[in-house]
């Protein structure tokens, strides 16, 4: 199942804190859809080390980053 | 991290370098509080009393100087992509020189002898000029954030006349040279320091941190392009007036500065009113208090209010208040950021890095703001009734001590968590859950 985290109005570092909390709490097969105004490059570094993969869509002001564990095939929308 | 608006956090210097300046700054505000408790009646008798000069320099060299230099060592590489050259020796040298200057200059004013004053002023000058040289070298290579970089360049430039005039005044005070128009040069020294170095720095830093940490729209483009140059032009006009004796020029310069700073304060308040999150944290409350004090000082200047009231509003309201806001935000943020970096480097993901707000709890930070606000109100009243200055001093002491305790606690937790993150993997299982969410 998909979880949604809208972090567009949060000051740093709350988006990263909440993303890591959400990932830690959700089952391995679930996905997290993160909404942010900019691309979270420092988060990408952390995600790859934690074994997650992600797809980015959207544009400046409203990026959508779909995150799931590597090897777990993403479920349908 | 996620929405840090083009910041390059990977270029930040080792944490202990800026932290040593940021953590010792509150000590000097606390000493200023003690001075006000003991000699408050003299401080508020006239801006020219030795006690008033001692209290002023404890705040501007010890508190403001250390907090601002520490913050800039961190900000320059992150905001402008320009690491400070030699930061590993610049930071300890600036720290030691400013600390020595912040103690010796006030001691010299309070009767410890002219050599103490000379040594203190040279020490502070060394600290500020080494910092200015290193920051100027970094800013020469800066790219991005042009409005911030311009304001920071002008701020660092303003340090040079501040220091040069300050050392010249000490030379005149100790009889090494004769200076005509001593009082005018004291005012020029104060103006370059308070409105040039501090004022321009506040503009440059605010353009970055207000939209980022308070999640507001960016400052209007026309303001960020014009405010710093107008402020600097006002400073030049005042200096030309001091050299030529043209009074109209000084009045015009003061008007330009008051207008630029009042516009900045109003724009900041409007932006913060439209912030995305309604939460009023201690940092925001500190900002509002400082901006209110700054606007009050501008109105007071227009209405020709007493110098002591204007000085209190600017030095305590803005000069202590805004760096306090910055310290309450930047120290836990840096501790959190470096812990995250450490975790990525060591791969110790089973150790939970605490949230930034757990490093400096919001409730405790609000108490610090309340103490500061009360101190400001009582000290402003002391400019009319010096008998309450001891009370104001004790409140300033408490606010500074509480600030120091909050920052030191965050740094201590950083150290213990960093140690947990550094344990080799084989032993790592034993530290599982060390971090507090």
Description:
The complex is a heterodimer of chains A (77) and B (437). Chain A is α+β, with helices and mostly antiparallel strands and 77 residues long. Helices cover 29% and strands 35% of the residues of chain A. Chain A has one domain (2-66): Translation Initiation Factor IF3, CATH 3.30.110. Chain A is built from 2 helices and 4 strands; from the N terminus they run βαβαββ. The mean pLDDT of chain A is 85. Chain B is mostly helical. Chain B has a single domain, classed as Cytochrome C Oxidase, Chain A. Helix content of chain B is 79%, strand content 0%. Chain B contains 14 helices and no strands. Chain B has helices at 16-43, 50-80, 87-112, 114-140, 146-173, 182-213, 221-244, 247-273, 282-302, 307-346, 356-359, 362-382, 389-421, 425-428. In chain B, helix 1 (16-43) packs antiparallel against helix 13 (389-421), helix 2 packs parallel to helix 4 and helix 9 runs parallel beside helix 12 (362-382). Chain B is globular and about 70 Å long. The chains are: A alpha+beta (77), B mainly alpha (437). The interface between A and B is medium-sized, with 23 and 23 residues.
List the helices and strands and how they pair.
The complex is a heterodimer of chains A (77) and B (437).
Chain A: E1 2-6, H1 14-25, E2 31-36, H2 41-50, E3 52-59, E4 62-69
Parallel strand pairs in A: 1-2
Antiparallel strand pairs in A: 2-4, 3-4
Chain B: H1 16-43, H2 50-80, H3 87-112, H4 114-140, H5 146-173, H6 182-213, H7 221-244, H8 247-273, H9 282-302, H10 307-346, H11 356-359, H12 362-382, H13 389-421, H14 425-428
């Amino acid at each position: 199942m998909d979880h949604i985290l809208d972090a567009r109005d949060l000051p740093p570092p709350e988006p990263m804190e909440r993303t890591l909390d959400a990932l830690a709490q959700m089952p391995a097969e679930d996905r997290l859809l993160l909404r942010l105004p900019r691309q979270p490059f420092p988060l990408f570094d952390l995600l790859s080390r934690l074994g997650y993969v992600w797809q980015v869509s959207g544009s400046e002001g409203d990026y959508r980053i779909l995150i799931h564990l590597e090897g777990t095939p993403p479920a349908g929308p | 991290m996620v929405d840090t608006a083009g910041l390059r956090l990977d270029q930040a210097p080792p944490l202990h370098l800026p932290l040593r300046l940021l953590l010792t700054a509150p000590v000097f505000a606390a000493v200023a509080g003690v001075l006000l408790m003991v000699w408050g009646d003299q401080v508020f008798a006239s801006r020219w009393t030795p006690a008033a000069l001692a209290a002023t320099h404890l705040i501007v060299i010890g508190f403001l100087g250390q907090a601002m230099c520490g913050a800039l060592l961190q900000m320059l590489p992150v905001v402008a992509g320009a690491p400070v050259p030699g930061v590993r020796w610049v930071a300890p040298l600036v720290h030691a020189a400013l600390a020595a200057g912040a103690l010796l200059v006030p001691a010299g004013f309070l009767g410890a002898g002219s050599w103490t004053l000379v040594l203190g002023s040279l020490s502070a000058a060394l600290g500020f000029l080494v910092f200015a040289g290193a920051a100027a070298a970094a800013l020469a290579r800066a790219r991005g954030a042009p409005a911030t970089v311009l304001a920071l360049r002008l701020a660092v430039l303003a340090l040079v006349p501040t220091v040069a005039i300050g050392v010249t005044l000490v030379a005149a005070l100790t009889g090494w040279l004769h200076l005509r128009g001593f009082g005018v040069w004291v005012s020029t020294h104060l103006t370059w320091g308070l409105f040039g170095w501090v004022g321009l720095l506040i503009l440059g830093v605010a353009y970055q941190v207000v939209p980022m940490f308070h999640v507001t729209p960016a400052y209007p483009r026309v303001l960020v392009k014009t405010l710093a140059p107008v402020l600097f032009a006002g400073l030049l006009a005042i200096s030309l007036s001091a050299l030529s004796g043209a009074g109209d020029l000084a009045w015009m310069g003061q008007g330009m500065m008051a207008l630029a700073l009042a516009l900045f304060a109003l724009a900041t308040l409007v932006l913060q009113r439209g912030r995305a999150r309604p939460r009023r944290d201690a940092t925001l409350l500190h900002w509002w208090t400082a901006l209110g004090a700054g606007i009050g000082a501008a109105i007071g200047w227009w209405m020709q209010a007493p110098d002591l009231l204007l000085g209190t509003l600017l030095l305590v309201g803005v000069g202590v208040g805004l760096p306090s806001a910055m310290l309450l935000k930047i120290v836990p943020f840096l501790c959190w950021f470096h812990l995250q970096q450490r975790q990525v480097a060591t791969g110790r993901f089973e150790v939970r890095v605490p949230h930034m707000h757990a490093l400096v709890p919001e409730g405790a930070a609000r108490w610090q703001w309340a103490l500061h606000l009360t101190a400001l109100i009582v000290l402003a009243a002391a400019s009319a009734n010096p008998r309450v200055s001891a009370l104001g001093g004790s409140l300033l002491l408490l606010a500074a001590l509480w600030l120091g305790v909050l920052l030191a606690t965050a740094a201590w937790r950083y150290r213990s968590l960093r140690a947990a993150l550094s344990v080799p993997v084989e032993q790592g299982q034993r530290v599982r859950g060390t971090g507090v969410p």
